[in-house]
Design goal:
Layout: H1 2-19, H2 22-51, H3 56-61, H4 65-73, H5 90-124, H6 126-132, H7 134-144, H8 147-151, H9 155-160, H10 164-173, H11 187-190, H12 196-215, H13 222-233
Helix pairs in contact: 2-5, 2-7, 4-5, 5-6, 5-7, 6-7, 6-12, 6-13, 12-13
């Protein structure tokens, strides 16, 4: 009985080790990026509210949060003569700059995580990476649960991934039905002035094909898929 227990334990350990695949790591990385986005947005808002007590004009002149934090850290935030901001002692400014420095570190961490996601996608999902983009492709895999599950989904399902709450609200209350989920962030859709719904269906179809090719290790087809989109919609 003891030998049987040991064999079962070793088999369980082996299965657990083998269950950690690239998309398991990818899901963790893209979730990290999501959390970093939330954290940086919150801390950037806090930094601005705090720093505007001292130099409100500078905050309004630099709308980009990452650039704002960088300039505050480097003390490139010259206060205009006649500023409405209060005159604060160096100790107070030091605390603000400390927050800005930590915010800069989070932006750098997000940049590193993004590079890691891009590397994983290029190595394991080259078609998805080219058609959907690394971050959108990774997010689709995360919502689906794995590349295998995504590859087995219909294009219409891929189109709506990330819009589950809006879809449920449509079913429950009769609110306007969503036309797309996370793929809306793709420039092919977000930068279009018209036909966003048609573009979403077409893009989802190509992403679905790309996911299948990547999962079943087919030949690289992304260039052809993108060319078909270009021919259909121009540009």
């Amino acid at each position: 009985m003891n030998d049987l227990f040991k064999k079962n334990l070793e088999l369980t350990k082996k299965r657990l080790r083998e269950s950690v695949k690239f998309d398991t790591l990818l899901v963790q990385a893209i979730n990290n990026i999501d959390e970093l986005n939330k954290a940086t947005n919150l801390l950037a808002k806090r930094l601005r509210e705090w720093f505007e007590l001292y130099n409100p004009e500078f905050s309004k002149d630099v709308p980009d949060n990452e650039k704002f934090a960088e300039l505050v850290t480097r003390k490139q935030d010259k206060k205009e003569k006649g500023s409405m901001g209060a005159e604060l002692p160096e100790n107070d400014l030091r605390q603000m700059r400390s927050l800005a420095a930590e915010l800069n570190n989070l932006y750098k961490l997000k940049e590193n995580e993004t590079s890691y996601v891009e590397e994983l996608m290029q190595k394991n999902c080259p078609n998805m990476e080219k058609v959907a983009g690394a971050l959108i492709g990774a997010k689709l895999i995360e919502i689906a649960g794995s590349l295998e599950r995504l590859a087995k989904m219909a294009a219409s399902t891929v189109q709506m991934l990330g819009a589950e709450k809006a879809l449920f609200r449509h079913i429950k209350t009769g609110a306007k039905a969503p036309k797309y989920g996370v793929i809306f962030a793709h420039p092919f859709i977000s930068e279009a002035k018209i036909d966003r719904g048609k573009r979403a269906r077409a893009l989802a179809d190509k992403i679905s094909v790309a996911a299948k090719v990547d999962f079943f290790k087919g030949e690289f087809a992304a260039d052809r898929l993108l060319l078909e989109l270009k021919k259909k919609f121009g540009g």
